[in-house]
Amino acid sequence: MPSIGAFAAKTHFSQILEDVAAGQGYIITRRGKPVAKIVPLPDQAVSRQEAVKQLFVLARSRIKRRGNYTIDHLLTDLRKGRR
Q: Which of 46, 43, 45, 73 is nearest to 58 (CA)?
């Protein structure tokens, strides 16, 4: 992992963010001593396929509990944060 001085990091912050988004991490130094690390976040995004799968699971559970449960009911519940 490359290191970069605080002033250079400030000057080139946009490029550093692009590199981090691409998977590269950096150690930020001040007067030659490491003070911080900038690393990519772990991928926490839910894929579209997983989101649809969760939606169907939720819809099935609602239909079983409530009987006549439409997609409009489901969307209303989702917007209101109900589970």
A: 73
